[in-house]
Specification:
There is one protein chain. The chain is α/β, with parallel strands linked by helices. It has one domain: Alpha-Beta Complex (2-enoyl-CoA Hydratase, Chain A, domain 1), CATH 3.90.226.10. It contains ten helices and nine strands. The protein has helices at 32-47, 82-89, 91-100, 117-124, 151-170, 176-181, 194-206, 210-227, 236-243, 247-261; strands at residues 8-13, 16-21, 53-58, 105-110, 113-115, 127-131, 135-137, 174-175, 187-189. It has a six-stranded mixed sheet with strand order 1-2-3-4-6-9, with helices on both faces. The longest helix has 20 residues, at 151-170. The radius of gyration is 18 Å and the shape is globular. Bound molecules: coenzyme A. Residues 26-27, 29, 65-70, 113, 115-117, 139-140, 143, 260 line the site of coenzyme A (COA).
């Protein structure tokens, strides 16, 4: 039996499983609870040896609107020690690492929006199939914080330094076709074909011999991580707490929140 999560739903069809973000009223925003549950789900799937492919998707009208702006997962409280704050600042990175290191092959089934942390959740998956109506953005700088959750080494390894700087510093929106041109997604499909295309790919991968598939995943991940070897992942917890004290960054965050809450 699958674990009882409050923000996620797990369904299984023999060797294929669906892991759905399940907060549709909040556009599947990634709260602290949701990040912890995603990491727990990844570890649970690692014990389910019969599951070969996991399709990660969002219920309702979108994949996910990113970090929960009402329960900002990284925000410290005055009562927390620096150690607790560092730990909190690393929770998103632990989620992307847990998903990225899953034994099963992962397919991101993406529609609507994949913003900030949700975009990084998509990038943590091995395959990304995206509906043509999807748009992406990485608004962290406008929110007065650096991109964290392991996003910088991941993006540099996938699209190089120049495009990483452009997308992260400008915070501009980009669509499914541009994401495919950049090599960030595997397929762009009509929204009505999205689930079917993901299942087709899942069945074809599940039918392949498991050991060479697993070896390929581990090797590609190891080489891709090598590119980011100089990145000190644990520094994320400190960086976030430091920038939260910067007045200009705080003012940017307030302006951004006002712009999206109207
Ligand atoms: N965290 C928490 N709640 C969110 C959210 C988020 N990231 N994004 C949207 N929601 C909530 C809204 O508060 C709203 O709740 P309400 O109905 O109780 O008011 C509901 O989801 C619907 O959002 P709404 O803004 O009305 O939908 P929209 O289609 O007009 O716009 C977005 C969708 C995604 C463009 C817009 O919601 C947005 O920009 N969200 C913030 C994205 C973001 O900056 N994420 C942080 C990434 S690091």
């Amino acid at each position: 039996m699958s674990p009882d999560f409050t923000t996620l739903k797990i369904e299984q069809e023999e060797s294929i499983a669906f892991l759905s973000l399940n907060r549709p009223k909040r556009l599947n925003a990634l709260s602290g609870t949701c990040l912890r549950e995603l990491a727990e789900a990844a570890h649970w799937f690692n014990q389910q040896k019969h599951i070969k492919v996991v399709i990660i998707r969002g219920t309702g009208r979108t994949f996910s609107a990113g970090a929960d702006i009402h329960d900002f997962p990284n925000n410290p409280t005055e009562s927390e020690t620096w150690i607790e704050r560092r730990d909190k600042g690393q929770i998103g990175m632990r989620m992307t690492e847990s998903i990225g290191n899953m034994n099963a092959i992962t397919i991101a089934q993406v529609h609507g929006f994949a913003i900030g942390g949700a975009f990084l959740l998509m990038l943590a998956c091995d395959f990304r199939i995206v509906a043509a109506n999807t748009f992406f953005s990485i608004p962290e700088v406008d929110l007065g914080i650096p991109l964290s959750w392991g996003g910088i080494p991941k993006l540099v390894s996938e699209i190089g330094p120049a495009k990483t700087k452009e997308l992260v510093m400008t915070c501009r929106r980009f669509d499914a076709v541009e994401a495919k041109d950049l090599g960030l997604v595997n397929q762009v499909v009509a929204i009505e074909d999205l689930e079917k295309k993901c299942l087709e790919l899942a069945h074809s991968l599940a039918a392949k011999p498991a050991v060479p598939i697993m070896m390929t995943k581990e090797q590609v991940n190891a080489v891709a991580k090598h590119i980011g070897a100089a990145y000190v992942a644990s520094a994320e917890g400190d960086m976030l707490q430091t920038v939260l004290k910067d007045e200009e960054s705080k003012a940017a965050a307030i302006a951004y929140m006002n712009s999206i809450t109207k």
